[in-house]
Amino acid sequence: MKKDSEEIMLMKGNEAIAHAAIRCGCDGYFGYPITPQSEVMETLMELEPWNTTGMVVLQAESEVASINMVYGAAGCGKKAMTSSSSPGVSLMQEGISYMAGAELPGVIVNVMRGGPGLGTIQPSQADYFQAVKGGGHGDYKMPTLAPASVQEMADLTVLAFDLAFKYRTPTMLLADGIIGQMMEKVVLPPYQSRLTEDEIRVKCPWATLGKPHGKKPNYITSLELLSEDMENLNKRLQARYRILEKEEVRFEEIACEDADYVFVAFGISARVCQKAVEIARSEGIKAGLLRPITLYPFPVEKIKELSNRVKGFISVELSAGQMVEDVRLAVNGKVPVEFYGRMGGVVPSPNEAFNALKDKLIQ
Amino acid sequence: MKVTDIVNPANLVYKKNSVLNDLPMHYCPGCSHGVVHKLLGDIIEELDIQEQTIGVAPVGCAVFAYKYLDIDWQQAAHGRAPALATAIKRLLPDRYVFTYQGDGDLAAIGSAETLHACNRGENIVIIYINNGIYGMTGGQMAPTTLLGMKSTTSPKGRMYERDGNPLDMPKLLAGLDGVCYVTRQAVHTVGAVKKCRRAIKKAFEYSALNRGTSIVEVVSTCNSGWKLTPDGANKWMVENMFSQYPLGDIKDTIQTEKK
């Protein structure tokens, strides 16, 4: 990404999201406090963007209200977002499904913590299924981006808005408690101005800004009582998802060129596995890392291609094993696919990940 | 005498407003929704705010309100209309934003969104249709159902011991500083329709003053849910609903200041 100033700053991942949102021309943030992501709204309230860019920041009464405020703002063609952590994102599922059905763009940040239930405030990746399989009701998919650094918290916030508007879909930034809380250096994205109403009317002709004289009104709705009409809406959504799957897959490969064994991991697990690859290489084992940046669309073709030349995969996750199912579907039985994970907020060490590789795939 | 001699502007005594679409409404004959829709169209036309008005439709019988008024609309999830309206009004502060909600939508599932939008003093209009029942789903008990009133989920009548008392949301909301105008109206007689029209107009005018939320409750009939004829439902409403939900202004901060 092009930066207008290469000023390097040190901040938390959650803070980077707030800065990036203001800089990319976000019109509105609506949220409710929950650990470990409260710094997103706290940073916005400190930065007071309503005095500079005019961005609205509002603390809502619940996550249910937050996501519906995002719906209302998005319906006006505005760039709107919310952020929360796992229990709060569960509450938002209704709103996300409505946004998918009403074809509304918006960004939802989930800084995941351990569950189920109130769980723990420690980091987790156990909301993978909820994010990529459609956590709410109905047939829908949601572009899901997995940042693995504070830099990516900023960069992927910008990308999330771009994808949301390009495909008229709610888009999720799926981080975890460590990426949210840890401090790293970051170069913030350049400032983009917020769209004017005239620009919104051109870019989002469906937006409800008030019906211009002599024109037909706009309706934002996910309701179609006739089965055939509802099926057509679904077909339109599915066609869009197929394009997403073709055009928007993003991943990072580390040492995969000559690898015999490949770790598949995202977010903080990918950072752990990056170190595990180094340990493996120092012991003469040719390990590599495939890090999906988009969890939906998933890098299916890349994994297929790798499965023609590696001896096995191991998916490392902060969960009981969720993404591993998608890795297995992509590999389709060609080579073994193993899993190693910790739950409840426990983060494995690089040695644990390396030992799991040895125990499950090599010995 | 030709038809054009009679049908000409000089003889015009009544004209349908231009905001109301020429669509057959899906509402049951005798339902109050149609009259309230017409009043909204009247007022949007009279105030000349068709291009500046954004409506938020609920889940319930009025879910298709967006088909009947020729303005921009958003259709909300059940109960969430005030959250949508909050964001729309905050991002487009010079627009007129109103929600149109039933009693299940506003007083039950959306009670939190309603209470907090009002407490923040969002400069929106809330049109609240209270018929004491869930009409669309077939006549179940609502928070507003009268004691002893039968519904499909209270077949022997609402019981205080089991279901609590009917919930009077406007009275409760009138206690909030964020709310500037609360009134309770009906549309069962010509006189009542005229009063209701004035109330809705006032609510829209107040919403442009940035003084907080305006709420117009319309105590309404649901003759199919109540299992009554349209006329019988009107009579039943007068005899039973009005003692629980008395008509008139509950709060008018701006009028009070003028006195």
Main β-sheet of chain B: number of strands, strand sense, barrel status?
7 strands, mixed
Can you identify the CATH superfamily of chain B?
Thiamin diphosphate (ThDP)-binding fold, Pyr/PP domains
Largest interface: chains, residues each? A-B, 38 and 33 residues
CATH topology of the largest domain in chain A: Rossmann fold
With helices defined by DSSP (H or I, 4 residues minimum), what is the helix count of chain A?
A: 14
By CATH's scheme, which homologous superfamily of the largest domain in chain A applies? Thiamin diphosphate (ThDP)-binding fold, Pyr/PP domains
Low-confidence stretches of chain A: none
Strand content of chain A: 15-25%
Give the uncertain stretches of chain B in residue-range form.
none
Main β sheet profile of chain A: 7 strands, mixed
Global morphology of chain A: globular
Q: Could you tell me the radius of gyration of chain B in angstroms?
A: 18 Å
Q: Give, in order, the helices and strands of chain B.
A: HHEHEHEHHEEEHHEHEHHEH
Chain-wise SSE layout:
The complex is a heterodimer of chains A (363) and B (259).
Chain A: E1 8-12, H1 13-23, E2 28-31, H2 39-47, E3 56-59, H3 63-75, E4 80-84, H4 86-91, H5 93-101, E5 106-112, H6 128-132, E6 144-145, H7 150-167, E7 170-176, H8 177-181, E8 183-187, H9 197-203, E9 219-220, H10 227-247, E10 251-254, E11 261-264, H11 267-282, E12 287-292, E13 294-296, H12 300-307, E14 312-317, H13 323-331, E15 337-341, H14 350-362
Parallel strand pairs in A: 2-3, 2-4, 4-5, 5-7, 6-7, 11-12, 11-14, 14-15
Antiparallel strand pairs in A: 1-8, 6-13, 10-12
Helix pairs in contact in A: 1-2, 1-7, 3-5, 11-14, 12-13
Chain B: H1 3-6, H2 33-46, E1 53-57, H3 65-68, E2 72-75, H4 81-91, E3 96-102, H5 103-109, H6 111-119, E4 125-130, E5 133-134, E6 140-141, H7 160-163, H8 169-174, E7 179-186, H9 190-207, E8 213-219, H10 223-226, H11 230-244, E9 248-252, H12 253-258
Helix pairs in contact in B: 2-9, 5-6
